[in-house]
Every structure is written in C-alpha cells, then in structure tokens.
Amino acid sequence: METPIESRYLIITGGVGGAKLALGLAHCLKPTEALFAVNTGDDFEHLGFAISPDLDTLIYTLADMNNKEVGWGRMDESWQFMDALEQLGGPTWFKLGDRDLALHTTRSRMLADGATLSEATAHICNSFGISHRVVPMSDDPVRTTVHTNDGELSFQHYFVRDRCQPQVTGFEFKGIEAAVPQPEILTCLENSRGVIICPSNPFVSVDPLLNLPGMRHALSQSPAPVVAVSPIVGGTAIKGPTAKMMRELNIPVTAEQVAHHYRGVIDGFILDEQDVSLHETLDVTTYVAQTVMVTLQDRVELGRTVLEFINSLKSKT
Ligand code: FO1
After folding, report:
1. Contact, 28 vs 304, CB < 8 A?
2. How far is it, in rounded angstroms, from Cα 152 to Cα 27?
C-alpha cells in the first residue's frame, strides 16, 4: 500500500503582497503541510539571464533574506555590477544586485543544462535552507503581456521600466495554451485540505495560474475549499497597481469586485475590517480580519486566521 501523500494546503502567491501572507502561512504550517505555487507570468529574459521575480520574492522572503524596504531582491546587497554595466551603456532600469546575480546565474545555468524551472527552484530553496516546497505554477513558459493605450508591453517593461504609468486595457498570457500546470499542484489538489489565494494582484499575479489549461477544473474537482484574501482594502490596494488597473478597466475598486473576479473559483473570501460593511452581503462566504500586514506577527496572525476560516468551511465533496 503506497503511503498516501499527506494532504497539504495549496498556497497561490505572486508579488510582494502575496509573499507577506505566504510567510505567515509558512510559520503556521509544517513543510509537509504546504505547497507554495508561484506565478511565473512576470518571468523574462534580461541581459542573458532567465529571471523569475515572483519565485525570487517568495524564496528570499521565506529565507528571511529579502530587502525589507521594497520587498523584492536581497538585503545585504551591493551594486558593483549595475555600476559597471552603466559604464558600458547597458540597461539599468531593472536593478540586479551583486548577490542576486548569483541566483539568476544559477537558475539560468541549470535551465540551459536542461533542468526544469521546478528543479532549479528546488536547488535554490535547498541552498537557502528553505524546507517548505516552492514550485512555479508551470515548468512551461508563460509571459504576461500588458495591453495599454500605447501598445503591448512585456510585464517588466510595464511594471518596472514604465513604473505602471501606461493606461491598461487588458492582459494576455503568451504561451499559456501550451503550458501545463506544475504536476505537484494537480496532485496536491486531489486531496488538499485547502487552497489559499494570497492578497496578490488578481489580474497579473493570480490569473496566469488560474488560466492554465486544466487548473480551474482541478480546483473545482478538489475536495479543498478555496479561500482568497482581498488585496483591495477600503477601496484601495495596499501594494502595487491593482487599484489603478481596476480603474483603467472600469471596474469599481472594491473588495466586492475582487470576489466577483474570483467567482466560480472561491468558496470563501476574507475582507479587511475596513470593509466589514460587505460582510455576509456577497454571494460567497466571507470572514472579516485584519488583512493589512505590517509586522511578522501580523503575517502569522493572518495565516492562522485564514487556516481557521478554511477549516470552518465544509469540504466540497
Ligand atoms: N521591481 C522594481 O520595481 N524595480 C526593480 O528594479 C526590480 C528589480 C528586481 C530584480 C529581481 C527581482 O526578483 C525582482 C525585481 N523587482 C523590481 C520586482 C519585480 O519587478 C516583480 O515583478 C514585482 O515584485 C511584481 O511582481
């Protein structure tokens, strides 16, 4: 009799905001109880490196190595490479720290040698002493493209080079039709205890994963309740361009609209206390909590609250 794979929580995250809750959940769950599934729509090739920003943000955060001011990249960083690159007239809009470069070099070398993104991620996590399992949403390339009123932009050009200024008209996930969900995610969903969608940008950090062929079906067939934490609090986004995107897409900037965006996927939705007026008014079960995370304790408390909420929702079978 094969030992059953222990039932785990699936944690879907992307970006700096998502990584905050992911860290809180990592403090609440043993390594065998969690699988972190990370957005790779932000990935791009730059200066010859294969760069996976959301994987790196989560990895540095779980390893407590992340730059606490901006949330991405490493603390204890130096910028000799960028200074020398500038002397050579190279592009400096995407900041690559000297120590961070070693990660991009390692991932790029492993991929060039035929390793999968999952294998490269596992090696990096092991090297940094991360015991929780972190996987990309897919080992196949998916690239988020932002449609704006002055043309198409790659995600990092939109987000970093142009500082989210262009007016968004839509999104496209290039390569997604041919992309397969990372197999461990599908296996996890077969007997998962719960699925958590972190307070990441729904359009560019969560939708790439949800739109992978077969992913929505796997989520609906899973016995696990699916819970999302609202990234919109009191009519604005705590972090990043979510609110600006919603305005430009003519979507009211409310937590209610985020719940609507996830309709058909979520069984529960966690509102911030500032949105208590929405509690029990949506067509999905809601829970009210402090979702703005400033301290590590805030992150752990929210993780605990999310797990209690999920466990209070009955299994879907
Ligand atoms: N975000 C920025 O706003 N400016 C940067 O120069 C920048 C560099 C960077 C380098 C490595 C990395 O892993 C992430 C980096 N990010 C930077 C964040 C990145 O743009 C992510 O896509 C965002 O966190 C949104 O997910």
Report:
1. yes
2. 40
Q: Return the H-helix or E-strand segment holding 136.
A: strand 133-136
Q: Who's near 274: CB < 8 A, 6+ residues apart? A: 233, 234
Q: What are the chain's domains?
A: 9-141+176-312 (3.40.50.10680)
- Furthest-apart CA atoms within the chain: distance in Å: 63
Q: What is the pTM of this model?
A: 0.97
* Residues 61, 72: Cα–Cα separation, whole Å: 8
| Pair of tokens at residue 1 | 């009799």
- pLDDT tens digits along 33-84: 999 999 999 999 999 999 999 999 999 999 999 999 999 999 999 999 999 9
Closest atom of ligand 1 to 155 CA is 22
Q: What atom in ligand 1 is closest to the CA of residue 52?
A: 13
Pocket around ligand 1: residues whose beta carbon is below 6 Å from it? 15-16, 42, 53-54, 56-57, 72-73, 94-96, 100, 156, 159-160
